[in-house]
Amino acid sequence: MSRPVRPVAVVAFAQSKNVRREDHRNEVEMLMPVVGEVFAKVGLTKDDMGFVCSGSSDYLVGAPFSFVMALDAVGAWPPLRESHVEMDGAWALYEAWTLLQEGDLDTALVYSFGRSSPSQLHKVLSLQLDPYYVAPLWPDPVALAALQAQALIDAGVASEADFAEVAARSRRDAMANPNAQVTGDRSAEELLGDDYVVAPLRRHTLPPISDGCAAIILAAGNRARDLCDRPAWITGIDHRIETHQLGARDLTVSPSTTKAAEVAGVASGSGGSPRVELAELHAPFASQEIILRRALHLGDAVAVNPSGGALAANALMVAGLTRIGEAAQRIMDGSANSALAHATSGPCLQQNLVCALHANPGGEA
Amino acid sequence: MSEPVTTLETPIHIDYQFTAGQAQSRFLKGISEGRFLGQRCPKCNKVYVPPRGSCPTDGVATTDEVELGNSGTVTTYCVVNVPFQGQSIEIPYICAQVLLDGANIAFMGLIQEIPADQVRMGLRVEAVWVDKSELRPNLSSVKYFRPSGEPDAPYESFEEYL
To answer: Which residue in chain B is spatially nearest to A73 when comparing CA positions?
Structure first.
């Protein structure tokens, strides 16, 4: 199911600042203020939640069942109807949205937390690869993204200057985002003076290593209208996955993103471009934004990543949920009527989720 | 036909930097001074030790620090009879949940200076710490708990914590 049988909306969003290393607070201490803030925005408490769902990864902090301990930030008495995905919080939101479709529950809290700093991140991310033939080689995630970026260049789709343009725009936009970690007003020409990390990726094309968390409240039907003046209705949501075998994929395209957008019912306008005002794309590497724009047929009229995106703040397991939150926030505050949010997971955009949001529960009225 | 490969070794080693956080840092500092420091929930008044910064029941920050005594009650226990590599204590030994006086959650500890078959629920115990010079911010600073000689605590006083 990817189109709603029952209207469900984002009614509140909160996030922490993204920092390089959160070394004074544990996960619970990080989450508590964010969960408290998202509840305060709609005047609810945990006792009003029909469902609670979180997204995180134990590999990041090296602690088994860290998500169970994180639940202390919500409080679990009387017992909650609760679930967790070992994925980005965007997938936790998908689970909550699906459950609300059943019609028995009206509200859900979705949260995610990610600490990328405690571990050797490049090694942790290698563990998501094929365990027999790829992971034992410990390929660095930057190296894998560089393979993809080089394939783009070889295919004549994009150049290093294009990557720099994405980074320059993201950093400039992030200057208006108080939770961003990497901001600045440097031109693409200046950025091209950066050293290569792994050619053809220079420093500015990489995401920061971030610690942070985020939370969203979903509500259905009239409950959403009671809680929020302008709920951001989810008019469609879908996620698709490609093979883990990197050599079997054409890394210059993202058919799973295209398919997810199609199934989520992202409305197409002239020339196949979706009729949305803005898109929050989860592109950890600058080169990946170009692939996603093409997969979604985004025209120049669509504002991409007004928050600065994952190039400005990239807490793992959080950055995808944050894309949905940032897109929804712009509908809730009245600055947009329609938006698209995207989340990714796995190496080189292996898994992709697309969420269509609109100020009207029926989408284009 | 050669034998099929049935095993593939792919060693994995990752180092982590642990962040105790504010509440647990206070607790561990206390341990390095030979004291048990808990935190109280402002909503339900329960005292947690070790504290993690929030009340797991109410989901609110625990802000009041509470120093607990050195004594407590064995709420439940098990007798370890299994030898394993690196074992530093002679078997059989006792691993117990100890409810420190003033706390609302039991605390894991070893029980020594009493034959294993005499340990019982309700037994009153006190913490035995390592020498002052050896105190560190980790739980090996608490060597074990031993009987304090007080009469057993009545069952009703700890039945909520089983």
So the answer is: B59
Residues B74 and B97 in one domain: yes
The verdict on domain A8-120+209-227 having CATH code 3.40.47.10 is yes
Query: Which of B14, B18, B54 minimises the CB distance to A28?
Result: B54
- Best CA proximity match to B23, nearest among A115, A63, A30: A30
The answer to whether residues B105 and B50 belong to one domain is: no
d(CA A214, CA A43): 18
Q: Does residue B74 share a domain with residue B51?
A: no
Cβ atoms B19, A115 nearer than 8 A: yes
> Does this chain's domain A8-120+209-227 share its CATH topology with A129-205+232-358?
yes
Interface of B with A (CB under 8 A): 8, 10, 12, 14-24, 52-61
Give the residue among A180, A207, A182 at the shortest CA–CA distance from A17: A180
pTM over 0.90: yes
- A201 close to A325: Cβ distance less than 8 angstroms: no
How much is the pLDDT for B84?
Answer: 87
Structure tokens at A117: 């700093």
* 8 Å CB contact of A72 and B59: yes
What CATH architecture does domain A129-205+232-358 belong to? 3-Layer(aba) Sandwich (3.40)
* Structural domain of B162: 70-162
Query: Are B60 and A123 in contact (CB < 8 Å)?
Result: no
Q: Is residue B9 part of a domain?
A: no
Q: Which helix (H) or strand (E) holds B154?
A: none
Question: Tokens at residue B16, please?
Answer: 């982590």
For residue B75, what is the domain's CATH number?
A: 2.40.50
Q: Cβ B10–A73 below 8 Å, yes or no? A: no
Instruction: Kindly give, in sequence order, each residue whose CB lies less than 8 Å from that of residue A135, ignoring residues fewer than 6 positions away.
Output: A126, A127, A128, A129, B10
- Sequence ranges of the domains in chain A: 8-120+209-227, 129-205+232-358
CA A141 to chain centroid: 18
Give CA–CA dist A277/B6, Å, rounded. 55
- CA dist., res. A78 & res. A80, Å (int): 6
- Rg value, chain A, Cα: 19
Alpha-carbon distance of B78 to A291, in angstroms, equals 59
Residue of B nearest to A121 (CA): B14
pLDDT tens digits along A289-332: 999 999 999 988 999 999 999 999 999 999 999 999 999 999 99
Q: What is the ipTM of this complex?
A: 0.86
Q: What total of structural domains would you count in chain B?
A: 2
Shared domain check, B110 and B56:
no
Tens digits of residue pLDDT in A131-188: 999 999 999 899 999 999 999 999 999 999 999 999 999 999 999 999 999 999 999 9
SS3 A14: strand
Compute the distance between CA of residue A222 and CA of residue A93 in angstroms, rounded to an integer. 20
Answer yes or no: do B143 and B126 share one domain.
Answer: yes
